[in-house]
Design a protein that fits this description.
The chain is 79% helix and 0% strand. The chain is built from 19 helices and no strands.
Length: 443
C-alpha cells in the first residue's frame, strides 16, 4: 500500500522537535556547558556520555512494553504522547540550565529529557515500520522521516543565527546563552503541536502477529544474526558523524581559524545538503537496494570528511563546500537502516509467529545513542588529556591542536569504512522481502 503525502508529512512532523535531542545536543550543548555554564571539559564529556549509558535500559523497557500494549488509542500513540510530555519537562531543564549548576543538577535534567525522548523515539520509529510491509515503500516512509529530521535540524541550527541578528532590535544580550535558549523555546513550542498532529491524522492498525514476549526475548533478540548486523551497521555509521559533530566547533575555531559563529554557520550547509541527499539516496536505493545505498553513502562520507582537513584555513566558502559534500551522503544511513530493520522485523515475525517491532526499534534507538555518547565522552577526555582549552578564544598549544585534528580526522573515517564493509554482506533484498510479506499475509 502506497501512503499519501499528507499522511507521510504528518508522520514526519515529530521529527522536527525530536531531532533537537540528536546532533544539536552533541554540537551545541557540551561546549556551552563547558565554556559558559562553568563545568569542566572532562566533567561535561562524562555527563553527556554517562546519561546515554544510564538510559539504555529504558529503551529496552519501553520497547518491551510497547509490544505488549493494546489500547483504544493504539499501540504506539500512547507512548509517543506520554514520552513527548516528559521530554518537554527535560528540555526546559536542559536548555535553560543556570550558570554554575552542579553536575548532579545537569545529570538530572539530561536524564529526564532522554527518558521522554526514548519513549517517544521508540514508539515513533516502530510506528513507521507498521505503516507498510513493502520493501521500497518502507524506504519512502523513512525517507520522509529523515526529511523531517533535516528540516528540523536546519531550522533549529538557524535559531542562534536569527537570534543574534535580532538581538539589537529587541535588546537581547548576545552570547552563547541566547542561541541555546532560543533553541529551547522552539523545541518547547514545536513538540506539542507535532504530537497532536501525528496523533490525530496518522492511522494505526492492530498488528496481525502481535504476541507478548518475556524479558528473556530481549537477550534472545540480541543473538539474532540479522539484528546484530543491522545494529552494528547503525552503530558505526552513527559514530562517524558523532565524532565529527562533537569536535566540529572546536576544530573549525581552534585549528582552522574560524569564529564560533562561522563554525556554527557551516553546520547549515551540512544539513541543508541532506535535503538533496535524502531523496537522491532514496532514488539510488530503489534502483539498487537499501544496503548498497548505505554502503556507498557511508563510504563516500568517509572520503569527503577526510577532504575537510585539506581545505585552506580561514576560507569560509571552501569549508562550506566541503561540509556540503560531506552532508549529502551523511543523511542516508539513518533512514535506510531503519527501513532495513523493518524488513528484519518481518523476517523474524515469519520465523517466530510474533512481532517484536517495539523491542527491535528500542535496541536500535539505544545503539544510536551510543553513536553520539561514545564520541563526546571519549574525544572530550582525550582533548582534556592533551591540554586543550574549550573556552572560546583560548590559546591552545600545537600539541593540543594536533590532537584535536587527529581526533577530528581519524575516528570518523575509520568507523565509516567499517560500517560500509558490514553493509556489503546484507542478505534481505526486495525479492526476499516480497516473499516474506506474502507468507505473512497468508498465515
Amino acid at each position: 500500500m502506497k501512503l499519501n503525502r499528507r499522511t507521510l508529512a504528518a508522520f514526519a512532523a515529530p521529527c522536527l522537535p525530536l531531532t533537537g535531542v540528536g546532533l544539536p545536543i552533541v554540537v551545541y550543548l557540551p561546549p556551552y556547558y563547558a565554556g559558559t555554564l562553568g563545568l569542566s571539559l572532562a566533567m561535561t564529556g562524562l555527563l553527556f556520555s554517562l546519561v546515554r549509558w544510564l538510559d539504555l535500559p529504558l529503551d529496552l523497557i519501553f520497547g518491551h512494553r510497547i509490544d505488549k500494549t493494546d489500547t483504544r488509542l493504539g499501540r504506539f500513540r500512547p507512548w509517543l504522547l506520554g514520552g513527548g510530555l516528559v521530554m518537554m519537562v527535560g528540555l526546559a531543564l536542559v536548555f535553560f540550565a543556570p550558570p554554575g549548576l552542579s553536575p548532579l543538577r545537569a545529570l538530572a535534567g539530561l536524564m529526564l529529557m532522554y527518558t521522554g525522548y526514548s519513549a517517544a523515539m521508540v514508539a515513533h520509529t516502530s510506528w513507521g515500520q507498521a505503516l507498510s510491509d513493502d520493501y521500497h515503500e518502507r524506504s519512502r516512509i523513512f525517507g520522509w522521516w529523515q526529511l523531517g529530521n533535516m528540516i528540523g535540524l536546519i531550522g533549529l541550527l538557524s535559531v542562534p543565527l536569527v537570534a543574534t541578528t535580532l538581538a539589537p532590535r529587541f535588546g537581547w544580550t548576545p552570547g552563547p546563552a541566547l542561541g541555546v535558549h532560543g533553541m529551547g523555546w522552539v523545541l518547547l513550542v514545536l513538540l506539542p503541536v507535532a504530537l497532536i498532529l501525528v496523533a490525530l491524522t496518522v492511522p494505526e492498525q492492530k498488528p496481525r502477529h502481535q504476541a507478548p514476549h518475556g524479558w528473556g526475548d530481549i537477550w534472545a533478540a540480541l543473538r539474532l544474526p540479522l539484528l546484530r548486523r543491522v545494529l552494528l551497521i547503525d552503530l558505526f555509521s552513527s559514530l562517524a558523524p558523532g565524532f565529527g559533530g562533537a569536535l566540529l566547533i572546536f576544530y573549525f575555531e581552534s585549528a582552522r581559524g574560524f569564529s564560533v559563529e562561522a563554525a556554527r554557520g557551516l553546520l547549515l550547509f551540512y544539513f541543508a545538503a541532506g535535503l538533496i541527499g535524502a531523496p537522491a539516496w532514496g532514488w539510488f536505493a530503489r534502483r539498487t537496494s537499501k544496503h548498497q545505498a548505505v554502503m556507498w553513502s557511508i563510504g563516500s562520507y568517509a572520503a569527503f570528511h577526510a577532504l575537510l582537513v585539506t581545505l585552506p584555513a580561514s576560507n569560509f566558502w571552501a569549508a562550506a563546500l566541503g561540509m556540503t559534500l560531506a552532508g549529502i551522503p551523511a543523511v542516508a544511513p539513518a533512514f535506510l537502516i531503519r527501513a532495513m530493520l523493518a524488513d528484519v522485523v518481518d523476517a523474524e515475525t515469519l520465523d517466530t509467529g510474533r512481532s517484536n517491532a517495539g523491542l527491535y526499534y528500542a535496541v536500535l534507538v539505544g545503539v544510536q545513542k551510543l553513536g553520539y555518547a561514545i564520541p563526546v565522552g571519549l574525544s572530550y577526555l582525550v582533548l582534556d588529556l592533551v591540554g586543550f582549552d574549550a573556552k572560546a578564544g583560548a590559546g591552545n598549544s600545537e600539541t593540543a591542536i594536533a590532537g584535536l585534528t587527529a581526533l577530528f580526522l581519524g575516528p570518523p573515517v575509520l568507523v565509516a569504512i567499517i560500517a560500509a564493509w558490514l553493509a556489503k554482506g546484507w542478505t534481505i533484498t526486495a525479492a526476499v522481502q516480497a516473499r516474506t510479506a506474502a507468507a505473512l499475509a497468508t498465515r
